[in-house]
Specification:
about 140 residues, elongated
Length: about 140
């Protein structure tokens, strides 16, 4: 039960962190500002938050005996999204120029967000109808 609660609330933290990081990287990419320690922390914590969500999701997936087709696709896709975000974070960290750091993080984080949004079990989806917020 605690994993379900953490997973369902932590997903909003992932979306907020990821969209905030994308906005911050887009601003830095356009503005010609230096890649500050705050930007580096945002890059790092965005990847960390997605990893925590992946661990929670895998834990729920393993603990639940019902594995339908959508859940398998969802798990594989979310693993791909976290991998894309992790690669982007690592590549941005290793770039020499600040503009390249912002651009790299922006592209990879945006790609990860698109994958996540495509695989969310939206309430209007014909594959899986889920509420935005769960009632416990």
């Amino acid at each position: 039960m605690i994993f379900l609660f953490l997973h369902s609330t932590w997903r909003w933290v992932v979306l907020l962190t990821l969209t905030g990081a994308i906005a911050r990287m887009a601003r830095g990419r356009r503005g010609g500002v230096p890649f500050s320690p705050l930007d580096n922390a945002i890059r790092h914590w965005t990847a960390t938050v997605t990893h925590v969500q992946l661990v929670l999701g895998v834990t729920l997936f393993v603990r639940n005996p019902v594995a339908d087709r959508f859940r398998l696709i969802h798990m594989a896709g979310m693993t791909l999204a976290v991998t894309v975000i992790t690669i982007g974070s690592a590549m941005a960290k290793r770039r020499a120029h600040d503009a390249d750091r912002f651009a790299t993080a922006f592209r990879w984080f945006l790609a990860g967000l698109v994958i996540i949004l495509l695989l969310v079990p939206w309430p209007f989806s014909p594959l899986a109808q889920r509420p935005y917020f769960r009632n416990f």
